[in-house]
Design brief:
The protein has a three-stranded antiparallel beta sheet with strand order 1-3-2. The N and C termini lie far apart (41 Å). The protein is mainly alpha-helical. It has four helices and three strands, in the order αβααββα. The model has no long low-confidence stretch (mean pLDDT 90).
Length: 90
Protein backbone atom coordinates (compact mmCIF):
# COMPACT_ATOMS: atom_id res chain seq x y z
CA UNK A 1 0.00 0.00 0.00
CA UNK A 2 1.38 3.38 -1.00
CA UNK A 3 0.89 6.47 1.15
CA UNK A 4 0.13 9.72 -0.65
CA UNK A 5 2.63 12.58 -0.60
CA UNK A 6 0.20 14.72 1.38
CA UNK A 7 -0.02 12.08 4.14
CA UNK A 8 3.77 11.66 4.14
CA UNK A 9 4.07 15.42 4.70
CA UNK A 10 1.57 15.32 7.57
CA UNK A 11 3.49 12.49 9.24
CA UNK A 12 6.74 14.41 8.71
CA UNK A 13 5.13 17.38 10.47
CA UNK A 14 4.26 15.09 13.38
CA UNK A 15 7.88 13.95 13.54
CA UNK A 16 9.12 17.55 13.61
CA UNK A 17 6.58 18.47 16.31
CA UNK A 18 7.67 15.48 18.40
CA UNK A 19 11.32 16.45 18.12
CA UNK A 20 10.47 20.06 19.01
CA UNK A 21 8.59 18.92 22.11
CA UNK A 22 11.65 17.14 23.51
CA UNK A 23 14.26 19.59 22.20
CA UNK A 24 17.21 19.92 22.89
CA UNK A 25 17.09 16.21 23.73
CA UNK A 26 17.45 13.83 20.79
CA UNK A 27 15.38 10.70 20.17
CA UNK A 28 16.12 7.33 18.64
CA UNK A 29 14.24 6.32 15.52
CA UNK A 30 12.30 3.70 17.50
CA UNK A 31 11.15 6.32 20.04
CA UNK A 32 9.91 8.61 17.27
CA UNK A 33 8.11 5.70 15.59
CA UNK A 34 6.40 4.88 18.87
CA UNK A 35 5.30 8.50 19.39
CA UNK A 36 3.71 8.83 15.93
CA UNK A 37 2.47 5.20 15.92
CA UNK A 38 4.19 4.19 12.68
CA UNK A 39 6.60 1.52 11.47
CA UNK A 40 10.29 2.18 12.26
CA UNK A 41 11.47 1.64 8.68
CA UNK A 42 8.87 4.07 7.36
CA UNK A 43 9.85 6.66 9.97
CA UNK A 44 13.54 6.17 9.17
CA UNK A 45 12.77 6.78 5.49
CA UNK A 46 10.94 10.02 6.35
CA UNK A 47 13.75 11.10 8.69
CA UNK A 48 16.31 10.59 5.94
CA UNK A 49 14.16 12.73 3.62
CA UNK A 50 13.99 15.42 6.32
CA UNK A 51 17.76 15.20 6.73
CA UNK A 52 18.22 15.88 3.00
CA UNK A 53 16.11 19.02 3.44
CA UNK A 54 18.23 20.02 6.48
CA UNK A 55 15.25 19.85 8.85
CA UNK A 56 16.77 17.28 11.20
CA UNK A 57 20.28 16.29 12.24
CA UNK A 58 21.47 12.72 12.56
CA UNK A 59 23.49 11.87 15.65
CA UNK A 60 25.71 8.84 15.13
CA UNK A 61 27.66 8.86 18.42
CA UNK A 62 26.69 8.58 22.06
CA UNK A 63 27.70 11.09 24.75
CA UNK A 64 31.03 9.27 25.24
CA UNK A 65 31.94 9.63 21.55
CA UNK A 66 31.38 5.98 20.70
CA UNK A 67 29.61 5.38 17.37
CA UNK A 68 26.27 3.61 17.40
CA UNK A 69 26.43 0.39 15.42
CA UNK A 70 22.76 -0.08 14.58
CA UNK A 71 20.88 2.92 15.93
CA UNK A 72 20.53 6.60 15.15
CA UNK A 73 19.36 9.54 17.20
CA UNK A 74 17.71 12.59 15.70
CA UNK A 75 17.21 16.22 16.67
CA UNK A 76 15.90 19.34 14.98
CA UNK A 77 18.30 21.55 13.08
CA UNK A 78 18.87 24.97 14.62
CA UNK A 79 16.91 26.78 11.88
CA UNK A 80 13.86 24.55 12.21
CA UNK A 81 13.95 24.78 16.00
CA UNK A 82 14.04 28.58 15.83
CA UNK A 83 11.15 28.59 13.35
CA UNK A 84 9.00 26.37 15.58
CA UNK A 85 9.90 28.48 18.61
CA UNK A 86 8.91 31.68 16.82
CA UNK A 87 5.53 30.14 15.96
CA UNK A 88 4.72 29.35 19.59
CA UNK A 89 2.21 31.60 21.31
CA UNK A 90 3.64 32.87 24.57
Amino acid sequence: MKISQKKREKISEQILATLFAVSPKSLFTSQIAQEVARDEEFIKNLLLDLKKKNFVLEIKKNSKGISYLRRLRWRLSEEVYNFYKSQQIN
